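Figure caption, in words: inputs first, then the predicted bound structure.
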Amino acid sequence: MSTAPENRTATRTYSRTARALHWATVALVAIQVPVGFTMAYRGNTLKVWDKLTGALYNGHKVVGVTILVLVLWRLAYRFTRGAPPDEPTLEPWQKLASHANHWGLYLLLVATPVAGYVGISLFPALDIFGLFKLPGIVAPDKAAAGTAFAVHLALAIALVGLIGMHVAAALFHYFVRKDNVLGRMLPRLLR
Ligand code: HEM
Ligand code: HEM
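Bound structure (protoporphyrin IX containing FE present):
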């Protein structure tokens, strides 16, 4: 029995929901990282604590918590619905490397915002644009906040490193290997 073309596509690609969650996370992380470095540079290095620096810090907290919520939703969806079977032409080492990359990304997408949240709870700096306060998750301890922010920075750098490998691999598959890996997240690019 032959399979309808739309069903063949469905078994080769991530679902609409998984794709929407993936690209929403990409857009928010693309904002979050440069905002994080900019605000920390303005505040900690230049010692400029003006309205703009404050707004960047507030925005960073809001976007960071949104990323955490999206990723937890995405993980719950991933554990219950799974992922499409691996692209059939992949070598065993490529399957292993991509799974390690993806689970490493998930781990850092949870650990990085949690470390940031622990940092603002310890500091404490839970106020959001003077409108409301986020609930603290640990008791205030200003000295420990510095350590939490150092961990947050290290995790963010590791996350950027894994994203770099992930994007390089996606482009390698599309332009060099010319397989259907990128099409799994962007079905219009399926060959
Ligand atoms: C995936 C999510 C996140 C990413 C990729 C991220 C990334 C970053 C980066 C790159 C910095 C600059 C670090 C530095 O130069 O010292 C930073 C700083 C900071 N982040 Fe995040 N962040 C995330 C989530 C969060 C969350 C959820 C919070 C709190 C609710 C938060 C609070 C902070 C604070 C307060 C700083 C400034 C630390 C300081 O001034 O030393 N971040 N973040
Ligand atoms: C913030 C940046 C990004 C993050 C955090 C991220 C995260 C992830 C994660 C966690 C997965 C695994 C999905 C799963 O199996 O549950 C994934 C899959 C995928 N991502 Fe990304 N991604 C990012 C950017 C990108 C970009 C820019 C591209 C395209 C150039 C891309 C293309 C893909 C593709 C094609 C897959 C499916 C790979 C496969 O099934 O083997 N991602 N991404």
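The chain has five helices and two strands.
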